[in-house]
């Protein structure tokens, strides 16, 4: 059976490119077919690889997609992996790196685990995002972390809606509609709650709202969350995962609902600090103080 792996890297970082070369060579030596993107092939410069276009066909029929970089690199890779339902395996070369499964210090051990098939796959909820103005579609897209309606110059005046019913009117810098995966990203910085990835829910987090009722909300995954920019106020902009940008004129309406296609993440097992419970990941990434913990009293 031919096992194919797509390897992508943040080419703007020299150490990341060198790590990618090591990964590619190790996979080729193990007898696996390795693909690299045409826009990255020259920087990686390895022999014995298949160069593929940077489009949704790149990950088709690949067993796994290995991504070397930070969370931004993982979000970019998700655009290629999601249509093909290919699992993403991230090696963190950034800062916090919540989406990545392994750190660069565990690079070789992690790659060997991929070669040996010692990993599981979990699905992460996404959101589908539709923006319209008087029936005209302005954007039809998706997000893994969040869809955000933001101001451009002046404060936005908007109305928030849940399941077809108005919730509140806010003068604000914007509103974040996030998934549980995105709860540790922009939504967290804006004061939203951290939600465990296996929890199925949608988050709505106002950004700097001038209102008494402007708290983060956690709603059912079956709900539709909507934001309407009032017609007589300045327009805004829609950002999805901080990567895809769409202009929102006054009167635009953005609807966010559970995505039809999830993103699949590979989780290793049998390696220290990988496949760990989400609680442990929070402690490690945020360097939370847990000194003095004794655990449950055992009989």
Walkthrough of the structure:
- It is a single chain.
- The protein is an alpha+beta fold and 299 residues long.
- 20% of the residues lie in helices and 37% in strands.
- The strands form 4 sheets. A 6-stranded parallel β-sheet has the order 3-2-1-4-5-6, with helices on both faces. The protein has a 6-stranded antiparallel β-sheet with strand order 9-8-19-16-11-12, with no helix packed on it. A 6-stranded antiparallel β-sheet has the order 15-14-13-10-17-18, with no helix packed on it.
- β8 and β9 form a beta hairpin.
- The longest helix is centred in the N-terminal third of the chain and has 16 residues.
- The protein is globular.
Structural class: alpha+beta
Give the CA-CA distance, first to last residue: 51 Å
Shape: globular
Radius of gyration: 21 Å
Q: Which spans of ≥5 residues are poorly predicted at pLDDT below 50? A: none
**Number of helical regions:** 6
Main beta-sheet strand count, sense and barrel state: 6 strands, parallel
User: Helical amount among residues, as a percent range?
Assistant: 10-25%
Share of residues in strands: 35-45%
Strand order of the largest sheet: 3-2-1-4-5-6
- How many strands appear in the DSSP assignment? 20
Mean pLDDT over the full residue set: 92
H-E order: EHEHEEHEEHEEEEEEEHEEEEEEEH
Compact description:
The chain is built from 6 helices and 20 strands. It has 299 residues and is an alpha+beta fold.
